[in-house]
Each structure stands twice: as C-alpha cells, then as structure tokens.
Amino acid sequence: MAHYDTIIKNGTVFDGKGSKPVKADVAVKGEEIKKVEILKDGEYDADKIIDAEGKYVCPGFIDATNHSDTHWTLFSDPAQESLVRQGITTIIGGNCGSSIAPFVGEKGTRGIERWTDVSKNNINWQTMEELFSVLEKRKLGLNFATLVGVDTLIDSAGEDFSQVEFLLDESLNSGALGISTSLGVSRANTLNDKKLESLFKITAKHEGITKHHLEDEGKDILPAISRLIQMARKSGADLHLSHFKVLGKGSWPLFSSAVNIMRNARGEGVNLTLDFFPYSRTGSDLFMLLPNWLRKMGKESVLEILNSAGSEKRDEVIKHLKDITLHYDKIIVASSSSAAANAGKSLMELSALMETEPEELILNLLSVNDLRVSIFSEVISFGHIKELAKEDYSIMASDGVGYDNKIFKPKNDLPHPRSFGAFPRAMRMLVKEDSILSWEQMINKMTGLPAEIFKIKDRGTLSEGKKADVVVFDPETVSDYATYEDPFQYSKGIEQVLINGSVALDNGKPAGKFSGQVLRKK
C-alpha cells in the first residue's frame, strides 16, 4: 500500500498549463507531487486527507511583481499572510530597479531607503550569494526568488561601470532571475543606451530576463516601449514589462497602439511579456506627478526647486501640474510621514482644508515629507485591464507587499488593497463576473505561464515530480474584500495552501508553518 503525506481528494484539478480541468486526486509526499489521478480506495493511506469535493485544485500562484523585499516585510512579516491567503506561494522580488542585494559600499542600500529605515535593519550581507545564504537560514512563509535591480547595482558600484557589470554577472551566477529597471526616476536613466544594452547582453548570456517599470506610462509610453524592444532585439534578451498600464485619460487613446507595438515585436521574434493588476487606481509616489526633467534630478536639487518660491523653475512645475489636468478628487494620500491625518484624504479635500491651490499643495506635501508621499490615483481604465487579460503573453501580478497582522493598522500608511486581494479579485472580475477568461486561462496566467516566463522549472504546474505548491479554492466564494479605505481585510475562498508539500493554510486559517524556500535560477 502506497503511503503519502497529504492527499487532496475529489477535486476539480487544473494543471496550470491552460488545459481543461479533470476530476482527480493529488498525492503529495515530502516536497513533491507524486500522483495526479483518481486513487482507488484501499491502495493508499495518508497522514492528511483533504476533501476537495466541489472545490478547484490548482498550482500555487506566482506573484511576478512583488515588493515584500524592498519594503522589508519579507523580514518583519515572514508569514506573508496577506499573500498566502490569496493563494500566492511564490513571490519574485527585486522589481522596479531596486533589490536587496548586492549591497556594496556606503550607498548600496540607497534604493530601498524610501520604504524602510535601513539603520534599524540587520543587513549582514553584501553580495547576492550572501543574501541567499542568509535567507536560507530564516523562516520564510512562501518561496522567494529575485531579480537584481539596476539602481542597486549602480548605488553599489558608484561611478565604475565595469563594477556594475561585474556585480550583475556575479548576482546572476548566484541565481538571480535577471535584471529590473525603472528608467523614469532612477539612477539607471544616467546610463546611455550602449551601457544599458551591455547589461541586457550579460543577462541574455545567463538566459535571464530583463524586467521593466516603463520610463513613461503616460503620453510618452510608445517611445518608452519601443526603446526597450530595440534593446531586447539587439541583445537577444527576454523582455517583461511590469504592472503594464496607460496612465491618465489623456493618454488612454495610446493603448491600442501600445498593444500593436508589442504584438508586432513578438511577431518579429522578441520574447516580450507583461503583467497587470486588476485595479483602476494605481499605488504610486506623488513624486511621479512632477515633470520628467525634474524627476531625473537628485533629491537635493528637486527639494531646492520646490522650496524656491517665485522662481522660474518652480513656476514651470506648477504649470506642468495644471497642464496634465489631474482629477484631484480621485487622488488619495496613502502615506505621509509628517501628518498621519492626511492618509485617506483626497488632494481636493486637503486643498480645501489647507486653503491652498492643489498644485501648491502637491509641492508643499513633497517638500515637508522629504519627497516621500504615496498616493492612490484613479488613472487606469478597467477596459484596458480586460483587454490586457485577453493577450496570450500577459500574466497576473499584485505589485503589492505581504503583511502578517491585519490588527496592526498604521494610521499614516495605507497599503494598496492589491496587497490583500489582487489574485482573488482577478478571479472574481475576469472570470466570475465579466467572463473575460475561462478558469483554465486565468489559472494559467497565475501559475504555469509566469513559471515559464521566469524559468522556474519545478513549479507552476500540477504534475508528477513538481514541487507541491498547491491551492484549493471554492470557485463560488473566492473574492477580495480589501478596499482603499480599509485595505487590511483578507481575501476569502482560498481554503487550502500547500507550500513545498507543507500545509500553510488549512480551512482558510494560517497553519503556522514556514515552509517557503529561496528559489535560485538554475
């Protein structure tokens, strides 16, 4: 008689590849899936049997754009409960140009200082290899893989570009999945195309991926996409666009052209993919509303201009804000260190309270908060989200952060609800309500396809020999509950989550297991 650790019985099984579901049992022993078939009574026994009658069984979800590392909750909230309760079993960090290694030299940690107080963190590593070694000794609530941020490389290497190349090569050798950039507001924008192309080529040599927060997601989105496609074409590197969106109604007409550019590039052999999140409000920095020429300056120079009342450059910034026709009633302050009472209020409300013009308010908020103000801004089209979901090269991602304890509610720092509800929300909206995708298509975009894109070869599908990252959910009840006003609300309907064969969520409740692993690119 065969013995297994866990058997999931009687479920409707989705393999993660986009195939139609089948009625089957899933048998797990150790960290691996051993059987996906109907098991006959009397031919097996198991330590734990999960009855999944009426439930859907699928691979664990892979969150390709996640910020638990740079926001430090990977360390402070190791269970990552807000993510695991969504069915997420693997997160990919190191996004948008910033990673938590390599940290070399005095300025190595500069890229993460706007999200965490590095002076209070025990950073006992420098290289990517050392980071992985540290994490492998810690408790992880889910699996963690990472890219290496180009900003972090530049901060660590200083002026020496050959050192940037060396650190990248070393990080990829250690198991980083590829590189990430955020060309619009970062040190990476100081690199010319030849240097960026060199980093693409090093990444391609390691069969890694290049992943990008677009330089411009508004009126200049088309040249921003085209520039990256050109570099991918020349270098042969894979190209992935993070949290793809077209920001602002004035730029929405560019969406169709953007999609056509991407389709054409794929038709010409560029391996281009993207991810999206299912919300019309983006969570971003107030700083991003400033004109491009100002965002590319150092912090001290930006603050000097914001504080230079009556100066020509400051007036130019005010004019820019007026010209882009912002809807101040739809931009909500999520966090500002100087005044907790600002969180949850719109710029229009604050403008009235402080009896100042909205444009002046924006500059004042940035100035008194040392540029650190985050916002929720309703600038994304739901129609675009639905169209992106239909593209066969798109995947789901949260663009969020993992949190453990919903009782802890910092009054001056509201997380985006995607940190608590992105994946169930996508299932609710795109499958259950609008029938944009079938269940097998949706699950593929959360499991098998991201595993394929990021070359995570032992996960993403339910098949024999794969790691046992498994989700059991109720298709009738699965949904998100987090809102912008009260984001600290967990999703429901995700009933069982196995990570590396260990039960992490049992009947919708955390099982107290820390079975996550560091995933290195092999």
* CATH architecture label of the largest domain: Alpha-Beta Barrel
Helix content: 25-40%
Helix count, per DSSP? 17
Major β-sheet annotation = 9 strands, mixed
CATH fold type of the largest domain = TIM Barrel
Oligomer: single chain
The first-level CATH class of the largest domain is given as Alpha Beta
Task: Please give the alpha-carbon distance between the first and last residues.
Answer: 35 Å
How would you portray this structure in words?
The chain is an alpha/beta fold and 522 residues long. The chain has helices at 73-76, 81-84, 128-135, 150-157, 161-174, 193-205, 221-235, 255-267, 292-295, 299-306, 312-323, 347-354, 358-368, 382-390, 418-433, 439-446, 448-453; strands spanning 2-13, 22-29, 32-37, 44-51, 56-59, 61-63, 88-93, 143-146, 148-149, 178-182, 209-213, 238-241, 272-276, 281-285, 331-336, 373-378, 394-396, 470-473, 494-499, 502-506, 509-510. It folds into two domains: 60-280 and 379-456, TIM Barrel, CATH 3.20.20; 284-378, no CATH class. The protein is built from 17 helices and 21 strands. A hairpin with a 2-residue loop joins β19 (494-499) and β20 (502-506).
